[in-house]
């Protein structure tokens, strides 16, 4: 039954991806659909190894959120999934912020509110906890017995917006959702934490960076608090046509959803708000210890920021963007240039002793929630160290972790994502 449900979901994702790809050819800045697609396919790909014994965790709606105006795009209550810790982890908390794209205009946000990315009415009532959320020591050696929480994402601006559009009946309340979720979890025991880790993947990885210091400020100074961003290092990079596809999209998100007021002042004091939605302009100012986990050839950024169909009208990049094995030498050269931009973006950040880094040379997107990439017999490694061990070594200060892989194609341990042709 589990296998059948997975394959049905996988086929739906593939069909949806075909529609998305065609859609993008007509809407060059509307990337939210394919971001969700890439995120979901990455998650489903990871579960294809059928960790059928994964713990299923129910959805909790935040009943107090409505009175605070902390609602999803369609006005429904936000929610999270909480699996309680035990033993040595009873007073330790791991918060995972869900990812899944953004919406940058009224049309994409109106569409989004008819999905689980914009309404709790469509959210799964139960989800499986794998990877960094797993409750099994053999799958998640350092965090398996912590209180583990997945906060659902239903605002479309990485938990940072605060405005509304009454005509379209849209509520842009990501920042309020963040605050309501944290307040609810604090009342359920998180206030007594002796250790806490804020994490997230994709749009949730960006949210983890943006909210890192706010998370730190929830706790006494005696609490060990750190943050982990997985696949959240979205770069303000030129696409294959020389345009700024992702910057154009972020400009829409920031302007539409009232994000500016919730961005770090230390950034907005000298840069425009859209620039301050890009992690490369924020990470150097984060005071709390932060770990950046990213693929040097992030598959979502290749598909939707660097080589989207809108920037490639003749289809020169079509095959390459879906499967790196079909890239020409010049295309690989372009992607090596992107890797150099990634390394430049984290250069100053990596000099801080308190920060951690794991940049592997894979074509991947989100590696903490998938069991096969987080911690398994054949997980990706850099210097013989799997991601879960690297993160644990950094969090518990067993070792400094500043792991940067050699360039493609040297890493044979990668779990590369290959997408079906549209």
From TrEMBL:
Pfam families: PAE. The keyword Signal applies. One of its GO terms (molecular function) is pectin acetylesterase activity. One of its GO terms (biological process) is cell wall organization. Its EC number is 3.1.1.-. The keyword Disulfide bond does not apply. Keywords: Cell wall, Cell wall biogenesis/degradation, Hydrolase, Secreted, Signal. GO terms for cellular component: plant-type cell wall. InterPro entries: PAE/NOTUM (IPR004963). It comes from the Eukaryota. It is found in: Secreted, Cell wall. Transmembrane segments: none annotated. Hydrolyzes acetyl esters in homogalacturonan regions of pectin. In type I primary cell wall, galacturonic acid residues of pectin can be acetylated at the O-2 and O-3 positions. Decreasing the degree of acetylation of pectin gels in vitro alters their physical properties. This is Pectin acetylesterase.
């Amino acid at each position: 039954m589990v296998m059948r449900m997975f394959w049905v979901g996988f086929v739906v994702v593939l069909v949806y991806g075909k529609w998305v790809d065609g859609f993008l050819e007509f809407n060059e800045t509307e990337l939210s659909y394919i971001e969700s697609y890439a995120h979901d396919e990455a998650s489903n790909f990871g579960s294809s190894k059928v960790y059928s014994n994964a713990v299923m965790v129910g959805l909790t709606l935040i009943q107090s959120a409505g009175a605070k105006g902390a609602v999803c795009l369609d006005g429904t209550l936000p929610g999270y999934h909480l699996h309680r810790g035990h033993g040595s982890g009873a007073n330790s908390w791991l918060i995972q912020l869900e990812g899944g794209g953004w919406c940058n205009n009224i049309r994409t946000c109106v569409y989004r509110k008819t999905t689980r990315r914009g309404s709790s009415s469509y959210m799964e009532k139960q989800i499986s906890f794998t990877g960094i959320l797993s409750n099994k020591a053999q799958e998640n050696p350092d965090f398996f017995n912590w209180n583990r929480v997945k906060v659902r994402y239903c605002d479309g601006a990485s938990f940072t917006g605060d405005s509304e559009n009454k005509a379209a009946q849209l509520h842009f309340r990501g920042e309020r959702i963040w605050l309501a979720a944290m307040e609810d979890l604090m009342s359920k025991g998180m206030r007594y934490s002796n250790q806490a880790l804020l994490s997230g993947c994709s749009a949730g990885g960006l949210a983890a960076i943006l909210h890192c210091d706010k998370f730190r400020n929830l706790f006494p100074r005696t609490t060990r608090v750190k943050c982990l961003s997985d696949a959240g290092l979205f770069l303000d990079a030129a696409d294959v046509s020389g345009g700024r596809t992702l910057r154009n999209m972020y400009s829409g998100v920031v302007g539409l959803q009232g994000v500016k007021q919730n961005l770090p002042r230390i950034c907005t004091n000298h840069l425009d708000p859209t620039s301050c939605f890009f992690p490369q302009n924020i990470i150097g100012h984060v005071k709390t210890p932060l770990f950046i986990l990213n693929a040097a050839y992030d598959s979502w950024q290749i598909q939707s920021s660097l080589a989207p169909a809108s920037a490639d009208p003749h289809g020169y990049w079509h095959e390459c963007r879906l499967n790196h094995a079909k890239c020409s030498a010049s295309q690989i050269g372009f992607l090596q240039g992107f890797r150099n931009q990634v390394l430049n973006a984290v250069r100053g950040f990596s000099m801080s002793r308190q920060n951690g880094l794991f940049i592997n040379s894979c074509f991947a997107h989100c590696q903490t929630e998938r069991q096969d990439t987080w911690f398994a017999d054949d997980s990706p490694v850099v210097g013989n160290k799997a991601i879960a061990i690297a993160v644990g070594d950094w969090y518990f200060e067993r070792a400094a972790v500043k792991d940067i892989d050699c360039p493609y194609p040297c890493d044979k341990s990668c779990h590369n994502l290959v997408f079906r042709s549209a």
